[in-house]
Amino acid sequence: QYLKEEIEKCIEAGYSFVFCLIDMDNKREGKDKVQYIRLKEKYHNRIISRPKEGINCEITFFENEPCLELWFLYHFKYTTARYSTSDALTKELNTLCGYQKTAKFFLLTKGLHRFFLEHGGDFDKAKSNAAKSMQSKEQDGREYTYSEMSDLFKTLTY
């Protein structure tokens, strides 16, 4: 419901593009999965056009399974390992670079991109690993451990 409301706010505000970064770990089953599928069917890769109101808004979803921290991990290494929780992935990131999923950490880093680079991460490697995760997901029929962030950055550079 929250995401739907935020998308609608963006449409009403007259944005031309709305990019939704989605963590999939809480959309794997039950009511949350059903609601997400409906929301995605309604908005993903759709253009909402209301010419009389001056609205022409393209909405795109970019999924990260299990969560955005996988994209962060891809700055350091590639994996298709199955993570049962986002905490397991966060713990691995912490081991590699000291990442913490806390407000204090985010405030102190003053930018995750710089933090990852300073700790041996590589943005181009992350994009390549994310693209590789999508290729292997399709080849293997896998529904876990993938990131569509490479697609986001391709979209942003057009």
Account of the 3D structure:
- This protein has 158 residues and is α+β, with helices and mostly antiparallel strands.
- It has 8 helices and 4 strands, in the order αβαββαααααβα.
- β2 (46-50) and β3 form a beta hairpin.
- The radius of gyration is 17 Å and the shape is globular.
- The model has no long low-confidence stretch (mean pLDDT 95).
What secondary-structure arrangement, pairings included, does this model have?
Blueprint: H1 2-13, E1 17-23, H2 30-43, E2 46-50, E3 55-65, H3 69-73, H4 86-97, H5 103-109, H6 112-118, H7 123-140, E4 146-147, H8 149-156
Parallel strand pairs: 1-3
Antiparallel strand pairs: 2-3, 3-4
Specify Rg, calculated over alpha carbons.
17 Å
Q: Order of SSEs, N→C? A: HEHEEHHHHHEH
Distance between the termini: 31 Å
Mean of the pLDDT scores? 95
- Alpha-beta content class: alpha+beta
DSSP summary: helix tally: 8
What is the share of helical residues?
Answer: 40-55%
| Major sheet details | 4 strands, mixed
Strand content: 15-25%
**What global shape is seen?**
globular
Oligomer: single chain
Would you summarize the structure shown here?
By secondary structure, the chain is of the alpha+beta class.
Features:
alpha+beta; 8 helices; 16% strand
